[in-house]
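We treat protein structure as text, and this decision shapes the records that our systems exchange. The tokens are whole numbers drawn from a learned vocabulary of local backbone shapes. Below, we set out a record of this kind in full and without editing:
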Amino acid sequence: MIYAILALLLLLPTLALRIRRLRDGGFHWAFIFLYFVPMVGRLALLVLLAMPSKEVEIVTINRPKEVESEEATPFE
């Protein structure tokens, strides 16, 4: 009985962590359903979770200081 309660308490955080790891690896969250495929599915999910994170390029927009200091109204 205690193990069943513990399993239910850990289900949601574990699911969230697996989905987050899939998204960091560049995969769609729906790959989490591979867990339900007999034999090969759990191994495939383990491989996907072990893949390195994808590199994300951070793009910033450099605005001139004149643009930042001016106030714009929604009616302009």
